[in-house]
Amino acid sequence: MLVLLVLPILPILKVTSIKGFKDVFPPAGTRRERMTTRACRVLESYGYGRIELPLLEKGELFVRAVGASSDIVEKEMYAFTDKDKDATLVALRPEGTASVVRAFIEAGGAREIPVARLFYTGPMFRRERPQKGRLRQFHQIGAEYLGRDDPAADAETLCLVDDICRATGIHGARILVNSLGDRECRPAYRESLTNFARSRIESLCADCRARLERNPLRILDCKNPGCAEATADAPLMADHLCDPCERHYGRVIELAEASGVKLQRTPRMVRGLDYYVRTAFEVVADHKDLGSQNAIGGGGRYDGLVAQLGGADTPGIGFALGVERMELAGGAEAEAVYADSILIAPVGESCEVAAALLARRLRLAGAAVEVESGARKLKAQMKRADKAGAGFVVLIGPEELAAGRPVVRDMIRKADYPGCFGLDDDAEAVLEAIRKVGNN
Ligand code: AMP
Atom 4 of ligand 1 has which residue's CA nearest to it? Predict the structure, then answer.
């Protein structure tokens, strides 16, 4: 009893979201979905099909695929031990390729699926420092092409990336390419780079010093100006490619450019993950909202990965695009919620039935329709239409109801079009009339 009496009255605290994990409300969420759908349509036009993957995997998968010395595994993985008897280490997926390859192997690999073109969309998790363009839960659209190692497959992949950027309306995207060599030529290059970096060790940052033994290629990628200056004349992979890698790279560029893809050869570009060989690429956009995080996506060839994860040796190439970065680069702008979102404004309760009936018919015909309350003032209803990002308002007052012809307001141009359709018209014809107003 005494205990109860002395318990303080606790204030009710607000529970907030976790840093780096974001909620996305409409209309931004709607735009995102539409942008993603556009990208998926392009993927399907290239013969890719969707694969659904778990968000949680054994931690070992990423250690083996991405590499123990990668930033992702070393610092950023959300991993914990499960409650099973083996206390399995499990991790929220930080990227998609490892999961696709694991799934491919489990499904029988190249024996069952000789050439697999698979895409995925969804959240990835990395415990990075949250900042503009960098979240702890972010979203990717990714694709993997397994079973081909010829340059035409790489060129087609670059074309696909270019087409997705165009279809989603990303401004000024550029594709940077490089060849990272293979098991034949990379070890010797790696050694010569390591020797070079050792000779400049005094000028390198602490991160690069740590990279020196474990992942020396990453030194070329360091954003620290001191490191960039110290390694300005570092040996480059492009000058150390073996003949087959050189020929492969040359043909990839030739084929992709012949298809109209603009590429920027970038000999200092390396990727952070261990599994890449030969072709590697990054998509960047110079958009003010991206700041220094201007990489929209990246990818490359990973011919040894399937074997490394226990499958039969199968080549592969893939990429992942960051959805939030695509949006920052203007990707979602192409998806104004404008064209097919309509708000019906009944003026007075006597017009509510006509409004509800029209809404129901238009929705069945595929439009997105919100109906306001007839009890609210027209001004308040219009405010709501603005806030909802509606493209059009269909206004039904007692006069319009009597005439059977509402007024359509184009919300972008703020112009009214009285009587452009009849309440009894076919739903398709109504939508057609509304779209026509929008095209005027
Ligand atoms: P990666 O898997 O590291 O090659 O990343 C591919 C793309 O995913 C990047 O180019 C970004 O667009 C996006 N991305 C990676 N990490 C983040 C993050 N922490 N926050 C937002 N987007 C990210």
Answer: 298
The pLDDT of residue 3 is above 70: no
Q: Are 272 and 70 in contact (CB under 8 A)?
A: yes
Q: What are phi and psi of 59, to 5 degrees?
A: -60, -35
Q: Which CATH class is domain 337-439?
A: alpha beta
In 3D, which of 337, 234, 325, 228 has the Cα closest to residue 282?
325
DSSP string, 364-397: HTT-EEEE--TTS-HHHHHHHHHHHT-SEEEEE-
If one residue of 134, 136, 164, 170 were mutated to test the ligand 1 pocket, choosing by the most ligand atoms within 8 A of its CB, it would be: 134
Domains in the chain: boundaries? 28-185+241-333, 337-439
Among protein residues, the one with the nearest Cα to ligand 1's atom 10 is 297
Task: Tell how many helices (H) and how many strands (E) occur in the chain.
Answer: 17, 16
Q: pTM of the entire structure?
A: 0.86
We find that the CATH architecture of domain 28-185+241-333 is 2-Layer Sandwich (3.30)
* Residue 30 CA to ligand 1 centre (angstroms): 21
**pLDDT value at residue 292:** 75
